[in-house]
Write the structure tokens for this entry.
Amino acid sequence: MSRGVLSRVWRATVSLKTTAVLMVWFAEWLLVGIFTPQTRLVGIAEIAARAKASRVAEFLFVTLGLAELPTSPIFLGTLAVLGVHLVCVLVDRAGGVARRVRLRSVTGAQVDERIARGPVVGVEARAADSLERAARVLGGLGYAIARPGAGQLWAVKNRASLLGFVVFHLSFLVMAVGGLTLYYTRFVATLTLVEGQSTSGGYGEVLRRPPLGDPEPRPVALVAFRPEIEGGKIVDVVATVRLGDGPETAVSVNRPAVSGPTSLLVMQAGVAPVLWLKDAGGFTRDRVSVVIDVDGGVIPRVPVDGGRLEALVQPVLGAVRVPRPDALKEQSFVVSVSRAGEDARLTATLRAGGSMGLDDGAELTLESVRYWARFQVIDEKGGLALVLGFLLLVIGAAWRLLWYRREIALVRRGAELVATGSGEFFPNAFGEELAGVMQLIGDALGRESRGAGET
């Protein structure tokens, strides 16, 4: 393959048109993910049923993997092509950026060519050191100065602004890495704890499992729970939790506890009576907490004494759904106990401290009433990379647009200094800025600046 063909292929690869095509291609696959049923939303059974009913659905959902778009080969291939394209663009632009950042990359012939293209602004300069005075003025305005040839100045302000281009494009790579890491490591589940209880794992409903496997469970303890209650409903909470071996942390409705990659957010709460079973001799046989979820509409059935007994616990009719902390001990519950597999039940209405006798001489006491809280547990990595990528995006764009590059070519022609220049993104405004710069140079030389547009 000839060098010319390779050059054309490379130019096509790094062209803006290629970028636009790839972005449209990527957006189309995102739309496919929106309008195609996804396993995480409808369940694997629904996807399997659709695939079984239609060959087209089987091809789309199973062969192409569109039911799990983020992990499908075709979507991952799209991301890979985008990543390669972005790297190629950065490599292609790197040489030009480096040359333009280097101040001394301009030759005397290039300066003369810029002056010849005009338009120019001139000031009278009869003093022998006029060029040096002009250089001092430009330096005071923040311009870096180079001397490409005799009687010439090349002045550049914000010459590193082109690095904003690199930072801007690099941000997309960082965000892509962060987003992929988040997707492949994000684990979401619910966890229900009663005050004073701790657990390592023991999740309720697992809302999302990461493709790379579940994370190692971390111990979680609910140290204390204090709700703010209005009309029998919880409007806010302050839960004190401990994640792993970390310190105790306060959690409220909109302020999760965060420890490393794990965060804990309060979702729901209620009351949990604690049942204490003692034998005829007063020795403890079992102690269990009963989570009463009023909104769930299900009477909790809990095994007691290793499953030999079953207890049903529910608030008495008309009881406050969630009592205040000082009223917990006044809350009454209907407790029904039966042997496993039997219909006959012993029933009693108990408050904290109340007891009921069982037919084998044992005693079941409602020891206390505590609060329970249901948390959403999120374990994920890559969030920091995503935030860093977004910051780099903002920094790169601001760097490139606000601290834009300004260039001035200035030469001495007999008894005058003439200059031309350019400013990225704002050429018209820079014409006025150049006239102002030459006015300052003229003042420094003790002469008035004369009009713009001379050649």
The CA atoms of residues 178 and 382 lie 4 Å apart.
